[in-house]
């Protein structure tokens, strides 16, 4: 079951500026191109960059990667890593290191088809966080989580315990730090920084550079196409009495900026936040984006809107101007660019005429 209370608390927080650094091993990986930054308007399309990647293909160990104020030393390439959240798992799959994984855990929604075969090749230790004995039975040498909750008492053990008692290195995504002051800005640059660090741990810095260059190219194409130009959007995450919405400082906003659309809750702080139906009705958005997750499906949210006597009169509801995005493509992570591409493609297929 999804830890909704914890996740909601994390999503409601505003993310301050702080940069995660990789101290060594990836200095040779440099890329030119578009850098998508949160809450800074549309990505620039004038330059139309053509990303280039000059990637080092080997790593000099030991390397150190830093997150949440903690320095993790990796003595040799990870051979038996365990990923403890979907976001972490998908970074590993995007880097093609599934053969260096001893286990995974905790999905929020479906792994995309392009990575399904790789994901299926890795043992699933638990539907949620594994118990410590399940985790240790996999004989891991590295634990990678999207959220610090993976290392709380009662799960696999704290990072200090793993390092001292079991000699297991560990890493928390900088977006999931307990201390909000240590979280980086929610930008694609920060996503790529995290991927660089994980690539160094697994010994594949060249793959991180290639991924960065490809995503920069895709973002440049989206910025030029402007599929969302002139379109207002209500990003509906969950909730009924009060809508939990995509706000102005996280994944939903980055997606909408990438395609040139306008978020009706862009002035709301944080990645997600509590909106209100009065503002939705007043804005009468052109399109509604549904975040689809096991704890709040797109179908359930659509049904709620269509049966409500007031909300059913929204232009987007009457026109069925709906876009659906997997929750994993709405968070700042390796799949966010896929989310932007999907939203752009779905917008292109909508009839936004009024009735």
How would you describe what is shown here?
- The protein is of the alpha/beta class and 355 residues long.
- Helices cover 33% and strands 17% of the residues.
- The protein has 2 domains: 17-215, Nitrogenase molybdenum iron protein domain (Rossmann fold, 3-Layer(aba) Sandwich); 226-348, 3-Layer(aba) Sandwich (Rossmann fold), CATH 3.40.50.1980.
- It has helices at 4-12, 86-94, 113-120, 132-137, 159-165, 188-202, 205-225, 251-259, 277-283, 298-307, 315-318, 336-348; strands spanning 30-31, 53-54, 63-67, 70-74, 81-83, 101-105, 124-126, 142-145, 169-172, 232-238, 244-246, 262-263, 272-274, 287-292, 322-326.
- The chain starts with a helix and ends in a 7-residue tail after the last helix.
- The model is unreliable at 1-55 (pLDDT under 50).
């Amino acid at each position: 079951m999804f830890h909704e209370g914890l996740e909601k608390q994390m999503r409601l927080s505003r993310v301050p500026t702080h940069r995660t650094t990789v101290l060594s091993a990836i200095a040779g990986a440099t890329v030119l191109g578009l850098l998508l930054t949160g809450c800074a308007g549309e990505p620039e399309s004038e330059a139309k960059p053509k990303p280039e990647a000059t990637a080092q293909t080997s790593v000099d160990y030991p390397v150190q990667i830093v997150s949440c104020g903690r320095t993790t030393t990796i003595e040799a390439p990870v051979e038996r890593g365990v990923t403890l959240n979907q976001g972490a798992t998908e970074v590993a799959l995007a880097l093609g290191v599934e053969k260096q994984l001893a286990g995974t855990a905790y999905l929020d929604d479906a792994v995309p088809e392009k990575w399904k075969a790789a994901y299926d090749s890795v043992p699933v230790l638990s539907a949620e966080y594994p118990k410590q004995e399940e985790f240790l039975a996999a004989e891991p040498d590295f634990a990678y989580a999207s959220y610090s909750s993976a290392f709380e008492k009662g799960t696999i053990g704290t990072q200090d315990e793993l390092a001292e008692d079991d000699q297991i290195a560990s890493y928390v995504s900088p977006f999931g730090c307990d201390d909000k002051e240590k979280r980086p800005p929610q930008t694609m640059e920060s996503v790529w920084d995290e991927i660089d660090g994980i690539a160094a741990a697994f010994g594949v810095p060249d793959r991180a550079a290639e991924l960065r260059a490809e995503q920069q190219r895709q973002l440049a194409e989206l910025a030029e196409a402007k599929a969302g130009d002139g379109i207002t959007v209500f990003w509906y995450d969950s909730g009924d009495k009060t809508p939990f919405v995509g706000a102005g400082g996280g994944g939903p906003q980055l997606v909408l900026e990438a395609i040139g659309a306008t978020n009706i809750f862009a002035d709301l702080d944080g990645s997600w936040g509590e909106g209100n139906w009065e503002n939705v009705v007043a804005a009468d958005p052109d399109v509604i984006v549904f975040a689809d997750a096991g704890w709040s499906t797109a179908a359930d949210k659509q049904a709620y809107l269509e049966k409500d006597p007031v909300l059913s009169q929204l232009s987007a509801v009457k026109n069925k101007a709906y876009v659906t995005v997997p929750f994993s493509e709405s968070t700042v992570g390796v799949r966010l660019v896929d989310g932007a591409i999907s939203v752009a493609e779905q917008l292109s297929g909508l009839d936004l005429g009024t009735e």
